[in-house]
Each structure stands twice: as structure tokens, then as C-alpha cells.
Amino acid sequence: MRTSITTLDPTPRQRIEPDQVQVFLQESDVPGPFAKIALINAEGPTGYTSENGMIQKGKKKAAELGANGLVLNQMQEPSAGSKVAGAIFGVAAQRHGTMIAISFRQAAGLPPDSTKR
Question: 2-7 and 34-45: which strand pairing?
């Protein structure tokens, strides 16, 4: 799986562990204000990648940037036609995902897992 990062906020942040990165389905799910740190793009052959694998890779990249949140922007599965063409021509159809690494403040008194969606 390939990933690329486009930095949106170059402020240096301390790395964290990937399991500390919370995943949100959309920006409105984030509990409070946040800063967008980077766009994370991931892609890989459908036979060797999964949505979960892409999210885990996104969490790892976000953690390296010091972001404690990851908003799932778009996950794209290849069309049936792409899969058939890939099978005929021996080229793997690609799965794509775009995520936004964010930094947000935890609500006071709540454990980190309480805001997971």
C-alpha cells in the first residue's frame, strides 16, 4: 500500500502512538474545535488492501505527525468494470482513501475512548 502526505499545518508536534489516534467518520463528529494537520492519501491493489488496513495505515501516519484524530474523508472502491479489466489485463484494480489528520482537544474529564465513533 502506498501513502502520501500533504502537510496543511507545519507546526511541529510530538509523535504519539497510533492507538491514541481516534477515527471520526466526518468532521462534525469531532468533539470540539480542531486543526487540520495533513491530508493522507492511501492506495493499493484491492486484493491486498482493505478499508481497515487503509485506516490503520492512516492512523500510523497521523501519529507520526502528532495528530490525535483522523477524519475519514473518502474511501473509494474500484468499479466492477475496473476489476474485470484488471483481471483480463493482469493489472490490479486500486482502492483509494483520503483522510485528514487533525489535532483536537479532549473534553475535560472524559477518557480518550469516549469520543470514538
Answer: antiparallel
Closest CA to 25 of 64, 51, 63: 51
Residue type, 20: Q
Q: What's the mean pLDDT in 35-45?
A: 93
Provide the residue ranges of all domains of the chain, joining segments of one domain with +.
Answer: 2-105
- Alpha-carbon torsion, ordered 110, 31, 67, 14, to 10 deg: -40
49 compared with 96, residue with greater pLDDT = 96
* Cell reading at 57: 495505515
Q: CB of 115 within 8 A of CB of 106?
A: yes
Half-sphere exposure of 25 (CA within 13 A, CB side): 2
CATH code of the domain made up of 2-105: 3.30.110.70
Nearest alpha-carbon partner for 71 in 46, 36, 106, 107: 36
Distance CA 95, CA 104 (A): 28
Asked whether the predicted pLDDT for residue 113 surpasses 50, the reply is no
Average pLDDT, the chain: 83
